Amino acid sequence: MQEQPKLCAAIAPCSVLLLRRRVQWRLERPTLILQMCSTPMSSSPDGLVSILKRRRASLDGLPPEGPDAAKQNSKRKVRFSEPEDGMEPGKPELRTEVEIIVADVSQADSLAIMCQQGLVVLNCVGPYRFYGEPVVKACIENGAHCVDICGEPQFLERMQLEYHSRAMDSGVYVIGSCGFDSIPADMGILYTKNQFKGTLTAVESFLTIHTGPEGGCAHDGTWQSAIYGFADSGSLRKLRKKFGHQPLPVVGATVKKRGSLFFSKEIDQYAIPFMGSDPSVVRRSQRFLYEGHQELPVQYSAYVGVGGVWSLIKMFCGGLLFWFLGKFGLGRKLLITFPEFFSFGVFTKAGPSRKQMEGTSFSLTFFGEGYAEGLDPSQGRPNARICTQIHGAEPGYVATPVAMVQAAITVLNEPQFLPIKGGVYSPGAAFARTTLIDRLNRHGLVFSVKRF
Fold first, then answer.
1. Residues whose CB is less than 8 angstroms from the CB of residue 139 and which lie 6 or more positions away in sequence, other chains included
2. Is the Cβ–Cβ distance between 145 and 123 less than 8 Å?
3. Please, are residues 291 and 277 in contact by the beta-carbon 8 Å criterion?
4. pLDDT tens for residues 357-403?
5. d(Cα 302, Cα 446) in Å, to the nearest integer?
6. Does the pTM of the predicted model rise above 0.85?
7. For the chain, what is the total number of helices (H) and then of strands (E)?
8. Side-chain half-sphere of 182: how many Cα atoms within 13 Å?
């Protein structure tokens, strides 16, 4: 029997046990591949490997083999048991029939073995600036596609600069930012453009996070990536000069940038420019579609709502501390060691509780303008508008796994709609011709038109 496609998951040690475990898609004997990264704060790689190898696992709810298998309930439940003798006390044991293969980013041979046993590696190991490149290199050298959830522009753009040609030669797709950073923004622009009746020339997006009675927070992995990115921002500017890109043409009227802080009538709260990777990822996609498919680029500005006056005060104090401490080594160490204190509870080492996740959701609203059908975008002011929205569950632990897994499944099932030769791509560049938006809609990331 022909071997079935495999999704492989590369997962950080802190995420192995539960929330970022990746299940397989349409496998007779699923294979889950875990890639371990060694960090200065963790024990030795050997210690991590030996702990994982001693974990037995079984997955409840698997339908039995035989003609009646299809009638069984296919819902799978992960269960935990007490550790065996010799295992670290207090650590739950993951029981699953999914095979576990251990790899370490510091051991190229182990990464090669991992990549040789799968078609798509889902790389969740971050910060990517420290642990991401060995995975990309191993995937390209061993013929496995790579999907990640990176929100670090420097890593994403450096991988494109250094590995795009090699990935094309190998026929391997390396697609970054396939989580909350930046599937909603990148695919949302494409969705808005497809729904617009005419020529869409500019879009502003506003992100709002909604929390329940328990409040909400995010894991400090994102916080760490932001710290390192801020400290090394000069390198990103130098990196971008190496591409030698000419500025994208401005179609239609130039959109005026908003201030660093303003009250947004669109979302009825204060807003600031979005500091994540969305603008840079969207810009890469627009460049690819313009240069490769002669599609007119869309101007894009991203903003995030920060709430009312009290939220504004906390944000200002936290931002001032971040800016000051992020400039020197000891300050960065303090920021990394005490994320909850310096972020006023926005980022924590434990991440959100289950109740917080259940009560949290996001909305990403797009306000687009352009020219109605038959009108020349070079003449006059835009005369048509559209508002679209993406709504989803908690971004980090719910929406991100959905987006990443659906992106990986799209790579497996729709290779004929991907860019022809492989390479390093943003989501919008890779998935513009695929059914990824439909897949996301069916799994809780809902795209809709609010008004024309």
1. 115, 121, 145, 146, 172, 174
2. no
3. no
4. 999 999 999 999 999 988 888 888 899 999 999 999 999 999 999 99
5. 19
6. no
7. 16, 18
8. 30
Which secondary structure element, helix H or strand E, spans residue 233, and what is its range? helix 233-243
- CB-based contacts of 288, cutoff 8 Å, min separation 6: 425, 426, 428, 429
- Which helix (H) or strand (E) is 35 found in, with range? strand 31-36
CA distance 81 to 403: 30
Where are any strands of DSSP class E within 184-326? 198-210, 218-219, 262-264, 269-273, 299-307
Q: What is the per-residue pLDDT across 160-219, written as a single tens digit (0 to 9) for each?
A: 999 999 999 999 999 999 999 999 999 999 999 999 999 999 999 999 999 999 888 888
- The answer to whether the CB of 146 falls within 8 A of the CB of 121 is yes
| pLDDT more than 70, % of the chain | 78
- What's the one-letter identity of residue 154? Q
Q: Which amino acid is at 67?
A: P
| Encoded tokens for 249 | 């043409």
**Unique residue bearing structure tokens 């029981």:** 95
Q: Please provide residue 113's backbone torsions phi and psi, each rounded to the nearest 5 degrees.
A: -60, -45
